[in-house]
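Reviewer 2 asked us to include a model.

Predict the structure of this chain.
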Amino acid sequence: MRMAQSRLVGVLAAIALVVVSTIGLRLSDPEEQKFEVINGVVGEPAKVNNGEVTVTELRVGTILKQFGRIQDSTDGMFMVIRVTGAATGPRPLELNAARLLSGDLRYEGYQSSSGVHAEPGFETTVDVVFEVAPAHIDDLTLELGSNEVLRGYQQRVRIKLGITPANMEQWRTTARGLIEPMTDTTRAIP
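Predicted model (structure tokens):
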């Protein structure tokens, strides 16, 4: 009888370990989480739980200047996207993960460039920087979301930038020379 109980305890412990491992893997893979996509367009606010996000400008170049000095250059192109996040609700707006999507291709923010954060009653404007391959810029979409894994059901804002196969060459031609991201600004919501 003791042998049967011992085996049962061992089997139950093994099952518990498999369940805990599965949950751990699920929580550690943020791309597999469920999230709601909020689609937006350049120039118009996209509403999210704690506020709204607006993309107002897109600039391109090959030389990145920051804090009055040449920071970097690329054989590709730098893309600087101006984003304003307004925390219109009672909680902060935290969309601290930014990436560009084009089909299966993903571009992560350049160096420390990330998303936007605003405290309740305020709006913050940031320039998010990406280094991209000029051959793969058609149909680029900016995605802003949260890096938090344990938050539960999330929202991600996706804003199409308006680069199409028809105007892609114009963007490539424009991406010559110096580009300088602005310093983040915060102000009370008017």
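The chain has two domains: 1-32, 34-188. The chain is about 20% helix and 45% strand. We have added this to the supplementary material.
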